[in-house]
Write a structure and sequence with these properties.
single chain; mainly beta; seven-stranded antiparallel beta sheet; 0% helix; extended
Amino acid sequence: VGVRRSEGRRFDVVKVQPNGGAPRELWFDRRTGLLGRMADRSGPQPTTVELGDYRRVGPMMVPFRITTVGGGLARPAERVLQAVEFKPADRAIFSLPRPKGP
C-alpha cells in the first residue's frame, strides 16, 4: 500500500487477504521492522489492533501490549501479557500414525 505516518512514526503498510478471509492492513514500523498495527476495514465499523511493548522472549520479539479499538467497542480493549514461555512442541502431534505390523 505504501508508507503511512501516524503519531510521529512512519510505517510500511501492506494489504493482505487470507484465503477465504477479509483483507487487512499490516503496519510495520519503519525504524524497528516490527508489526505495530493491524487494520480491518472490511466490516461496517473498522477495527484496529495496536501492538506494542515488544520484548525479547528467547529468539523472538513478542508484543506484551495489545490494544483493540473500533469495531463497535464502547472503549478500547487492552490486553497486557505478564509472561510468555516458549516450549518445544511435542513432535508426536505432527507425526503420521505408525504403520501396524503384519
